[in-house]
Amino acid sequence: MKKLEMLYEGKAKKVFKTEDEKKYIVEYKDDATAFNGLKKGTIGDKGVINNKMSALLFKLLEEKGVPTHFEELLNDREMLVKAVEILPLEVIVRNVAAGSLAKRLGLEEGVEMKTTVLEFCYKNDDLGDPMINDDHIEAIALATKEQVALIRSYAFQVNHLLKEFFIDKGLKLIDFKLEFGVYDGKVILADEISPDTCRLWDAETNKKMDKDRFRRDLGEVEETYQEVLSRLQK
Ligand code: C5P
């Protein structure tokens, strides 16, 4: 499949039209940003790792009944996906307190949540992706009530499946962010699932195995991304 016009360039990915109007090509970049673009850098081969890891996880989820945009891995940095219309929502699922939740609620990082927490943010760089609730989503028509219900149920299902898969590889799934899109009128999982979008801690040592190494200048960034992929491929 040939790449045509670039539709979108984000912080970590480019999206291209193809000869098939129902398919896009996603190209994963090595660029890394944090804190809404304030911190910028590159992580060597991140694009390759995130492409391969997302492909592997989308395949797993699809097999377990979660519809995703993934079609096929094309090469090291590119995948073919369904041409979804992305809903402007970041869907965050949390099992353990970390990052912005720990800060907001004054919790120590690593405190287990009694129940899984789901948050929605409005995907809008100018506003800094503010947190919103189901009522806001409906009130400003970001998604319908039915779509929100489906997104919630898929997000919890993804959490259940990924938690199980990761722990088997010696990784604790602390939290993660999903994005959904609409394709043929149906809500499906889109975007990526990678160390950029998940917090993963080593199950034995609690070592951070994700983008927090870049955000917080913890070192061994490339090596850790590689290590996560190689564990998942075993
Ligand atoms: O920063 P915060 O603690 O809210 O992030 C929660 C989870 O969502 C983390 O796994 C983070 O990597 C992910 N996230 C993301 N993209 C954003 C915001 C958060 O992938 N724009």
What distinguishing features does this structure have?
single chain; 234 residues; alpha+beta; Phosphorylase Kinase, domain 1; D-amino Acid Aminotransferase, Chain A, domain 1; 2 domains; seven-stranded antiparallel β-sheet; five-stranded antiparallel β-sheet; 14 strands; globular; binds cytidine-5'-monophosphate; purine biosynthesis
Gyration radius over CA: 17 Å
Average pLDDT number? 98
Q: What is the tally of beta strands?
A: 14
β-strand amount = 35-45%
User: Which ligands appear in the coordinates?
Assistant: cytidine-5'-monophosphate
CATH architecture of the largest domain: 2-Layer Sandwich
Helix content: 25-40%
Looking at CATH, the homologous superfamily of the largest domain is ATP-grasp fold, B domain
Model description:
The protein starts with a strand and ends with a helix. Helix 1 (46-63) runs parallel beside helix 6 (221-233). The chain has 234 residues and is α+β, with helices and mostly antiparallel strands. The protein is globular, with a radius of gyration of 17 Å. It has two domains: 3-82, Phosphorylase Kinase, domain 1; 85-219, ATP-grasp fold, B domain (D-amino Acid Aminotransferase, Chain A, domain 1, 2-Layer Sandwich). The longest helix is centred in the C-terminal third of the chain and has 24 residues, at 145-168. The protein has helices spanning 46-63, 99-105, 134-139, 145-168, 212-215, 221-233, and strands at residues 3-9, 13-18, 23-28, 31-34, 39-42, 70-75, 78-82, 85-86, 89-96, 112-122, 131-132, 171-183, 186-190, 198-202. The strands form three sheets. Strands 8, 9, 10, 11, 12, 13 and 14 form a seven-stranded antiparallel beta sheet that branches. It has a five-stranded antiparallel beta sheet with strand order 1-2-3-7-6. The chain is built from six helices and 14 strands. The structure holds cytidine-5'-monophosphate. Cytidine-5'-monophosphate binds at residues 90, 92, 98-101, 129, 175-177, 197-199, 211. The site of cytidine-5'-monophosphate has 14 residues, from strand 9, helix 2, strand 12 and strand 14. One of its GO terms (biological process) is 'de novo' IMP biosynthetic process. Keywords: ATP-binding, Ligase, Nucleotide-binding, Purine biosynthesis.
